[in-house]
């Protein structure tokens, strides 16, 4: 057949040589000397130390040094842990686990459901405080705790739940809340903002009727010192 590469019978053309492969053995880790193994372990420990340094430094600053004179608000020492059994519910009456609030910084306001002008101003300032944090605001959740059984007016709910700047609105009995958060002497719970760290510990209380710029300075310092505790967005 024209163009065929098939050799005719009896052809003396030599047959191709079979292919062969050479397999090279992998180095045996046991052949590494003790100095190399020690160097590898040392490098791993250095990497872990670098990753843990921000968390260790922030814990040391706030819970060992306790810089009481450097805050506009009042640092709470010792901190007060969010009770695991705090009876939180949403506005539909569904139970909300306290542990679900962990993982973010919380800026907490305590205001009644019958939100008056002072309450509306407090919720507005809460919103502005978070926005003033700029790129760090994603690390902070706004929480409105309602210590009664009433339902807020629709226009108030619409304002605090506006997309992109929404607050989490939860109901909690007054007596249970009083076992966790405390106002300053001569004040009530609704007079303050309360800052809770990502591990669920109440650690800062704003003055009554705070200067937003000064209190925002406290929040910025906390977020800077605690880089690595949490991740932006819940």
UniProtKB/TrEMBL annotation:
Annotated stretches, region: Disordered: 1-35
Assigned keywords, A-Z: Membrane, Transmembrane, Transmembrane helix
InterPro entries: Thioredoxin-like_sf (IPR036249)
TM region(s), chain numbering: 45-65
Keyword Lipid biosynthesis: no
The UniProt record lists the keyword Membrane: yes
Record organism: Roseateles puraquae
Descriptive protein name: Cytochrome C oxidase subunit I
Superkingdom per UniProt: Bacteria
Polar residues composition bias: residue spans: 1-25
Gene3D superfamilies: Glutaredoxin
């Amino acid at each position: 057949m024209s163009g065929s590469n098939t050799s005719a019978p009896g052809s003396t053309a030599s047959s191709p040589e079979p292919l062969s492969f050479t397999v090279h053995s992998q180095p045996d880790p046991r052949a590494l000397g003790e100095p190399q193994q020690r160097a590898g372990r040392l490098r791993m420990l250095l990497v872990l130390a670098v990753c843990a340094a921000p968390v260790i430094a922030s814990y040391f600053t706030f819970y060992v040094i306790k810089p009481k004179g450097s805050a506009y608000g009042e640092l709470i020492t010792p901190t007060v842990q969010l009770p695991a059994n705090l009876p939180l519910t949403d506005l539909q009456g569904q139970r909300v686990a306290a542990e679900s609030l962990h993982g973010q910084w919380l800026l907490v306001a305590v205001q009644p459901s019958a939100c008056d002008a002072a309450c509306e101003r407090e919720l507005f300032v809460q919103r502005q405080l978070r926005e003033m944090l700029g790129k760090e605001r994603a690390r902070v959740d706004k929480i409105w705790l309602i210590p009664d059984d009433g339902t807020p007016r629709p226009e108030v709910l619409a304002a605090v739940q506006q997309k992109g700047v929404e607050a989490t609105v939860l109901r909690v009995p007054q007596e249970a809340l009083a076992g966790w958060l405390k106002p300053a002497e001569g004040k009530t719970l609704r007079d303050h903002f309360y800052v809770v760290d990502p591990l669920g510990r109440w650690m800062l209380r704003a003055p009554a009727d705070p200067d937003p710029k000064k209190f925002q300075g406290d929040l910025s310092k906390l977020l800077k010192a605690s880089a690595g505790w949490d991740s932006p967005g819940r």
